[in-house]
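Milestone 3.1: sequence recovery, worked example.
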């Protein structure tokens, strides 16, 4: 992310753990750019509480949101996150994940 969005994502990630629950709530926002910002921030924070909501985001109507969610889950890591990322990659051809 660049510009204002990138700066906002960095600022939220710097807040760290206290920002996790509010960011999870933002994943339900109607604006896909807002959801993407929250996803990037959650991935940067790396808190395990974000794993389930990010797994749910892999089913978002927006291809971009799904892609960002997969990247965030990969960044957070852990067996459950990695399994869902693998499943997402198997179900979605690489050219549709871009």
């Amino acid at each position: 992310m660049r510009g204002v969005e990138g700066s906002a994502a960095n600022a939220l990630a710097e807040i760290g753990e206290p920002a996790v629950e509010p960011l999870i709530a933002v994943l339900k926002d109607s604006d896909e750019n807002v959801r993407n910002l929250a996803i990037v921030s959650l991935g940067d924070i790396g808190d395990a509480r974000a794993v389930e909501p990010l797994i749910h985001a892999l089913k978002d109507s927006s291809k971009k949101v799904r892609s960002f969610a997969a990247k965030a889950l990969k960044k957070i890591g852990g067996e459950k996150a990695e399994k869902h990322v693998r499943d997402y990659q198997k179900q979605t051809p690489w050219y549709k994940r871009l």
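The chain has one domain: 3-96. DSSP finds six helices and no strands in the chain.
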